[in-house]
């Protein structure tokens, strides 16, 4: 299997780890998907990298793949169509690339429908579309993608439709319908993350130290690298970007308990319902309660209180938890 090249900050790296997830993608290739698979996971956990590797796998299995990510700024990552179909959709591509937001997503789905008229195996990989279309409309676009499977524009052998999202707040909206199967995805395993870490040359902290801060999250490995391994810079960036001062003033007591043990949020439910909602909306917290392997892409996270991973809830990375801890200290001093 060809491993794709990816960008990590300003570095070229090779796709690493995720052997279980890659086998799952091969299973999708062999039988198609029904209904739509929506993959949720922490921001930066590697969903986009997996989708780009999945594109290569699906093409090896004879699929025409339409990959799109409306939030990407770079042209080559916003929309990618398998080489064998580019001439077929060239007129549509030229129009589509001038669109943004919901219109871009709608055009990309139309493009996939067009390809189905000419090819027997088609895959659609829709990455981080909910933020582009509006979280309140997430389920509508899942239904549009399901229509590609149920009502293809021409007879077709197999269809694969995968959607990736870090927007945990849409899980309930999407999950209340039978239009999609929800699957979790977590940060990289320790061994797999080591493979990625070792592709970064030059002076750097020990692997154990980087693991303790990132919990295996590739994006925050990149953030640390860009900050010249200064944890303070990354933590302060999280505090500012997510507006944690307001959150800490509103939920101080609950947060003080949650940074010590995220399962406090479950133990005290429903009293903590509002706090859970806000932490989820800010992409600080993820639900991890169901660990049956079939409910996950790759492997579910093991309980690890040192990394902030509880039985029911987990901080998306130790850096996220540390950012909350720091702002609590500041407002308490």
TrEMBL record:
It holds the Pfam family ATPase_2. SMART domains: AAA (SM00382). The keyword Nucleotide-binding applies. Residues 33-184 form the AAA+ ATPase domain. The keyword Nucleotide-binding applies. One of its GO terms (molecular function) is ATP binding. Keywords: ATP-binding, Nucleotide-binding. This is ATP-binding protein. It comes from Infirmifilum lucidum.
């Amino acid at each position: 299997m060809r491993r794709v090249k990816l960008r990590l900050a300003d570095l070229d790296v090779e796709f690493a780890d995720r052997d279980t997830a890659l086998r799952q993608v091969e299973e999708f290739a062999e039988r198609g998907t029904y209904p739509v698979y929506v993959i949720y996971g922490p921001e930066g956990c590697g969903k986009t990298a997996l989708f780009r590797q999945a594109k290569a796998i699906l093409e090896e299995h004879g699929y025409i793949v339409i990959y799109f990510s409306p939030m990407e700024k770079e042209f080559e990552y916003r929309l990618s169509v398998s080489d064998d179909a580019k001439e077929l959709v060239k007129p549509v591509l030229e129009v589509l690339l001038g669109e943004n937001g919901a219109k871009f997503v709608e055009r990309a789905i139309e493009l996939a429908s067009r390809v189905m008229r000419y090819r027997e195996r088609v895959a659609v990989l829709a990455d981080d579309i909910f933020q582009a279309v509006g979280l309140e409309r997430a389920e509508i676009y899942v239904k549009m993608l399901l229509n590609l499977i149920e009502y293809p524009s021409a007879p077709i052998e197999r269809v694969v439709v995968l959607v990736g999202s870090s927007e945990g707040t849409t899980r309930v909206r999407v999950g209340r319908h039978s239009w999609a199967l929800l699957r979790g995805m977590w940060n990289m395993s320790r061994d797999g993350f080591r493979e990625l870490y070792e592709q970064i040359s030059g002076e750097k902290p020990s692997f154990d130290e980087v693991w303790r801060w990132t919990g295996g999250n590739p994006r925050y490995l990149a953030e640390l690298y860009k900050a010249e391994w200064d944890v303070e810079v990354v933590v302060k960036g999280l505090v500012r970007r997510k507006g944690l001062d307001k959150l800490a003033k509103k939920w101080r007591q609950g947060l003080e308990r949650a940074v010590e043990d995220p399962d406090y949020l479950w133990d005290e439910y429903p009293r903590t319902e509002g706090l859970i909602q806000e932490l989820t909306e800010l992409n600080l917290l993820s639900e991890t309660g169901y660990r049956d392997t079939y409910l996950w892409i790759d492997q579910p996270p093991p309980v690890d209180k040192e990394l902030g991973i509880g039985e029911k809830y987990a901080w998306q990375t130790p850096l996220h938890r540390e950012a909350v801890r720091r702002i609590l200290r500041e407002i308490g001093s």
